[in-house]
Specification:
Blueprint: H1 2-37, E1 48-54, H2 61-69, E2 78-84, H3 91-97, E3 104-108, H4 119-128, E4 134-137, E5 142-144, H5 148-152, E6 160-164, E7 167-169, H6 175-196, E8 208-211, H7 212-217, H8 233-242, E9 246-249, E10 257-259, H9 265-276, H10 285-310, H11 314-340, H12 350-370, E11 373-375, E12 378-380
């Protein structure tokens, strides 16, 4: 009896995950279909404020500046604010000494200003000193095409409160970098698909835009202010829940922002811990439950192996079936998304990535909730 009961639980978790992936697929197809027939609009009438927080970015800051200067966007409609978040290298000095157009400013976060919010405080300080009605954020370690901003905002209409854009890791020479690029693309496509069905969950602050009015109406970053992150998806979810504005995703290659993958496993681990650390703090309890069910599905894989050894070979069959459903559905999602946004070449390490994906999700999920992590030379406490 106990064997059958556990097997039913495993099948129910699989069914939930299958439906979850099916929704992502549906959302992606909806975005792609919408993208195929709707012509691009002109840039918004409103003034845009582009905010770029930075901390210890001496290796990237001048490339970031050059990337922003080269943007094909009307200068009279664009205000750029670099915000220094207590850098202890020479990135601030490099930026201040560099030649800049008059629409680019450099600010530094004051002492004791929202001390524990870290990146969120830098963005909030930039917003408080901004003139734009639409806020765009990106990171200082990113590079952009000249038409990035124009493309991202081309469909930012009066109904739009939040626009998420695609982010891609640059190509690297190692298998580790290729695995990261594939996994990160999967996250981007997951976020896109869920936005496509009107159920926004994840996005990336390296490429988002939102109305200042929507930011203010929802209380900005004051929700869960003790969290060091949350300047992206927590805000997106609040705008969805508390306003009448639409949440959109710009599924266009020209809107891609590129950044380098992590240099080593330790950096990757800490980055994923930081991302996972927000999950249990979402205001939507149903959303938290959904994330827990997904985590339990991944946890079921090692559990099924153990149960197969200890209880019954039946769990080997459920394990194989679960694995096949996961692999086939995720392959289909990434293939469709890669053809539209990225490159089909990202699928080359797919099988290896699928093998590593399960322990990675389990470890990142647990450590993100209970562990501390290192970010930008700061030890962040949970």
């Amino acid at each position: 009896m106990i064997i059958k009961l556990i097997a039913v639980v495993v099948i129910l978790l699989l069914a939930y995950y299958f439906l979850f992936l099916l929704q992502i697929l549906k959302g992606l197809r909806k975005l792609i279909s919408h993208n195929s027939y709707k012509s691009h609009e002109s840039v918004p009438e409103e003034l845009i404020t582009l905010i770029i927080p930075f901390r210890n970015e001496s290796e990237n800051i001048l490339n970031s500046l050059a990337s922003i200067i080269n943007l094909e966007y009307p200068k009279e409609k664009l205000e750029v604010i670099f915000v220094n978040d207590f850098s202890d290298d020479n990135s601030l000095d490099l930026l201040c000494k560099a030649e800049k157009p008059v629409n680019i400013r450099v600010l530094s976060v004051p002492d004791n200003y929202s001390k524990y919010q870290h990146k969120k405080r830098a963005i909030r300080y930039g917003i408080e000193n901004s003139s734009g009605e639409i806020i765009v954020t990106t990171d200082a370690d990113c590079v952009h095409s000249s038409i990035w901003l124009k493309t991202l905002l081309s469909r930012f209409d009066k109904e739009t409160g939040f626009m998420s854009g695609p982010v891609e890791f640059t190509d690297g020479p190692t298998l580790f970098s290729s695995l990261q690029k594939l996994e990160f693309s999967g996250l981007v496509l997951t976020g896109a698909g869920l936005i496509g069905i009107g159920d926004p969950l994840i996005c990336n602050a390296a490429n988002i835009a939102y109305r200042k009015k929507a930011f203010e109406e929802t209380g900005g970053f004051y929700y869960k202010h003790s969290l060091s992150s949350g300047d992206d998806e927590l805000l997106m979810q609040k705008i969805k829940k508390e306003t009448s504005y639409k949440i959109r995703f710009c599924i266009n290659k020209n809107a891609i922002v590129k950044t380098a993958p992590n240099n080593n496993l330790n950096q990757f681990y800490n980055q994923r811990k930081r991302w996972a650390s927000k999950g249990l703090f979402y205001s939507d309890h149903l959303l938290v439950l959904k994330l827990i069910l997904i985590f339990l599905f991944y946890l079921s894989f090692p559990v099924q192996i153990i149960l197969g050894i200890l209880l019954s070979p039946l769990f080997y069959l459920t394990l194989i079936f679960s694995l096949l459903v996961k692999v086939l559905m995720e392959f289909l999602i990434i293939k469709i998304g890669a053809e539209e946004l990225f490159s089909i070449k990202i699928l080359r390490p797919f099988i290896l990535a699928e093998i590593l994906h399960i322990p990675y999700i389990i470890i990142a999920g647990i450590s993100g909730v209970f562990g501390n992590y290192l970010w930008k030379d700061r030890r962040i406490k949970r």
